[in-house]
Amino acid sequence: LRHVWFQHDGAPAHKTSSVKQDLVEEFGEQIIGYGGLQEWPPRSPDLTPMDFFLWGYLKQQMYATPPPTLQDLQRRITDACAYVTPVMLHRVQREVQARVQMCIGADGEKFIH
């Protein structure tokens, strides 16, 4: 995970000392946001891949037809995650970079993407 950065969303469950310790052990100084050396704008779903990509993608995959059982829903979640490809992740990475540049250009204020 040498080249991986963790983007901390500041959720209360992620602020416990044990979680922070695990994150520092795993990512060192490569933590963005809450508790990290690199700040991240609060309440910024337009800059967060989980918000602008993953949740919508998963919902689209899972609810194309209503899942008949909880087990079927769980299987669909697992399958949808398995189908996320490196190509998709590269597109998301480029989109994050473009959105960060727009945020910088807007001096951290609201921006249209």
UniProtKB/TrEMBL annotation:
Mind giving the lineage of the organism this protein is from?
Eukaryota, Metazoa, Ecdysozoa, Arthropoda, Chelicerata
In Swiss-Prot or TrEMBL terms, this protein is called Tc1-like transposase DDE domain-containing protein
Q: Which GO terms describe its molecular function?
A: nucleic acid binding
Instruction: Specify the superkingdom.
Output: Eukaryota
